[in-house]
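SEQUENCE AND FOLD
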Amino acid sequence: MGQYPERLNGIFQALADPTRRAVLGRLGKGPAGISDLARPFDMALPSFMKHIHLLEDTGLIRTSKKGRVRTCAIEKRPFAVVEAWLSAQRAIWEARTDRLEQFVTTAREKGQSR
């Protein structure tokens, strides 16, 4: 996944914050307006908007404005990038643990045959 390092850095930075994860969790249920998304959080709207801008800048959400209402919706493509990277990491570590298991099994068998 060498072609995505900067994008992954931004995505993981966005996911590192509990407020942004909560917003993404809410948006997983469907689009929502900024005021609805901000309601559960004890922060001023300008502070909350920094979270929204970061999520939008990383491509995790998109926003649209209709009249005075700005609506946010989740974008699925960045999550596919993360899933691909995580799958590659999982494959690497599963191969390593499989080799370790084989090593231990072989060492045990050699020890018992003496």
